[in-house]
Amino acid sequence: MKNLWISLKFTLVMCVILTIGYVLVLRLTATVASPNDGEAPVVELNGKVVGAANVGQAFTDSIYFWGRPSAVDYNGGGSGGSNKGTNNAEYLAEVEARINAFLEAHPYLERKDVPAEMVTASASGLDPDISPRGAEVQIRRVAEARGMSEDQVRKIVEKIHQKPWLGLFGTYKINVLKLNVALDEAQK
Questions:
Q1: pLDDT > 90: what percent of the chain?
Q2: In DSSP terms, which residues pair with 51 in a beta bridge?
């Protein structure tokens, strides 16, 4: 019985130490390793926070670039995919509707020109980035809606373009929120 009591006390003490220690180690690592001291990077416009840079948002107005669709309506508290397979009839109908809506907003495109990422939701439903191709196909629409030249919009896209770290790790991507804020700032 004495050994059982010692084992229980040791287990409880280790649980407390390791739980607190684990959290402290994670927090210290995030503070040292991340550019924002472990805090979510935010995007500001005119001194006001307009969103978190690492969480996708819904943009539907034609003056803005659109991000990937979200299976969770961009709800950061409940991220996740639809969990529907690629041969699920409901999923296929949803993607078809997204393709048709995208083509309606971009009449200069053909069906084969629509990037898959623009009509399929990411696994988290909160992807804040699109590929350079996803931005490229939208430049004409955004430029026309804003009364800007395509070259002006393209230069802003290229400025926001993020390259893989060290040219090796990650992908080429464009943060949609940062891009839309840069467009708003360019048109002040």
A1: 38
A2: 43
